[in-house]
Design brief:
CATH class: Alpha Beta
CATH topology: Nucleoside Triphosphate Pyrophosphohydrolase
Number of helices: 3
Helix content: 10-25%
Strand content: 25-35%
Number of strands: 11
CATH superfamily: Nucleoside Triphosphate Pyrophosphohydrolase
Order of helices and strands: EEEEEEHEEEEHEH
CATH architecture: Alpha-Beta Complex
Shape: globular
Distance between the termini: 45 Å
Structural class: alpha+beta
Number of domains: 1
Length: about 200
Amino acid sequence: MPSSPKIAKVEPLPGDEAKWIEFHKISWTDQAGTARIWEAAARKTRGKSGVDAVAINTIIHHPSRPTSTIIILQYRPPADAICVEFPAGLVDANETPSEASLRELHEETGYRGKLLHISPTIVSDPGMSSTNMQFATVEVVLKEGDKEPEQALEDGEFIERVVVPIDELYERLEKYSEEGKKVDARLWHWAAGLRFAKTL
């Protein structure tokens, strides 16, 4: 039985020790001509695509089951909580976001599918970070009797995948939140948009 993750210590991170991120001091001039300073975090891993990461919305079609999607549960130290998210990951230096979407989906969930759409480059938290991403929609078509595939997780990854009927997603996220899990904003916005489109 694996142990529960826990924070041992939180301390300032010297810039020369940071492997994944760095801090920027941005000097800029606002619309009134006033000189200002902004503090931001930036990834150090952005490759030639110019895109840091991808998140993947999976649409699963099955002959006798409702149309579903895949969410993942994993512990995130900055939130000190199990987070509920779309499958996602960084874009490698020499791959495209489209390639990264299919690779990350397979690694984190075991599923392989067809890329239906990938968004323009979008920002995640522009008031704090320069991080950007693209949002992919991947279709998975299953046949009766298909077995659930094996995840291809890297060493040190502890990711639980959950297949959820799309019509039940919003309520499932509310339940996870009540349990103390933290729902990723991108997933919540997508689920809320689907719900509101049906109810407003």
